[in-house]
Amino acid sequence: MNINKNTFLIDKFYSRQIKIPEIGETGQIKIMSSALLVNTYDTISKDVIFLCASIGFRTIFLRDPDDYRENLKIRNPFLNVEKIEDLDFAKFERLYIIGNNKRTSFFSNKGVFHVNFKKDDTTTVVSFSKYFEFWKYDTKNTVDKRMLACILTSEIVKHIVDDEFEKVVEIEFPEVFLQ
Amino acid sequence: MRMAIIGAGGLGLSALKGLLELKVNLSNEIVIFDFDRVEESNIHRQIFYTINDLGKSKIQVLKERFSSVENLRFFEMKLNDENVENLKCFNLILLCVDNAETRFIVNDFCVKNKIPFIEAGVEGFIGTVFIYVPEETACYRCFHPVKPLKKEKPGIITFTNVLAGFYQAKEAFNFLNGKSKLIGKLFHFDLKSNIFEYIKLSKNPKCPVCSVS
To answer: What CATH number labels B2-200?
Structure first.
């Protein structure tokens, strides 16, 4: 990691973000050192990518069977992200997976989504099983999906900045998103 | 129907994006007010500014970016007691600022002129959104009777801003369609503890603004 460049970014770009006690400079460096792998490029994960990029993730990997490159050309919002690549699984210090995982969605309940953190020596897997349940309620309203992306991103950030964060978290699905 | 967005920062731009996605603009004119310039701490989280816009007027940047979008207007102006009269022609106002001074000016004007507004505030992982409906709900001063002392700009993280801004847009859409569920309540969320709740708001009989008017 280039320390000088990071110091510059923290001082200039993330000056408001590091004021948050839960993040601070230490948390910001952890975020900037983390790699994000997004499995499936869709409405929610697209927003999670944007949010993570804006928060300071410097390396983002995309994995999608469809052709997402055209989408990327149009949006191009990834300020300060060093790499956006299409890669298969590899060894990362931290690895985050977001996407349509039918196995986890099977366990979801109406009105509740689960955020699961499964960790071994090299990899952390994050899966959000509420996706399918959520879409049953609202398949048209992208604003609701964007708000859900905010909640999911906050879970990722909390997990990174706080090593003691619980591995399995159950979140009550806010009624507001189901209106 | 004319709608104003006060503030073109993290909240205001998210609200604008939400309104455009909900296609509120098809039959409504939206006017955005701001006076600020694009700073380094803005561009990583405020979706419509890039590094090439540093130092430029936010309103000028947005004018260029949205030149092809119908029904969108932009005004460079810092609201104060004298020019707040410019808000008289609006049917709904989205208050997306980060300072108590502007909140007080807009609240007092809206109560006096019976204009509904939707206010949002964020700090760290916490955000609130509430709607003021004339003669029906509490106003901002009912629960903030005294202007707080000026303090340093709070810590901000993108997802709190975006969530609050999009919620404002959704609530504007619901309100315009007569379906608001926020009337008489404050939506409070804390992404650190995963709290999402509605807090009932009652009019303050001793409110220095709405109880008098």
So the answer is: 3.40.50.720
